[in-house]
Design a protein that fits this description.
It is a single chain. Helices cover 47% and strands 0% of the residues. The chain is mainly α. It has a domain at 52-79.
């Protein structure tokens, strides 16, 4: 760390390991559950189905459009 960065808290960065640990798995599960508990945590806004794309760009564009439409609908429902 450089001198200009202030460290807050005591949490240590996890090192990337080739071996799985139960502690890391449990921490990941808790993180996932906390995300799912958010108001729109369980919704990806992508309609169910099978999609085929010629390029990654097309797939990214489709995902972005679905996300935009879903966020618009979510925001409108909260008004």
């Amino acid at each position: 760390m450089t001198d200009s960065v202030k460290k807050v808290g005591k949490r240590r960065e996890k090192t990337i390991s080739w071996h799985a640990s139960a502690e890391s798995f449990i921490e990941g599960v808790k993180f996932n559950e906390s995300l799912q508990s958010l108001p729109s945590g369980g919704d990806t806004f992508i309609p169910k189905g099978v999609y085929f794309f010629k390029t990654h760009h097309e797939a990214d564009k489709h995902r972005d459009e679905c996300l935009i439409r879903g966020m618009e609908a979510l925001a409108a429902s909260r008004l």
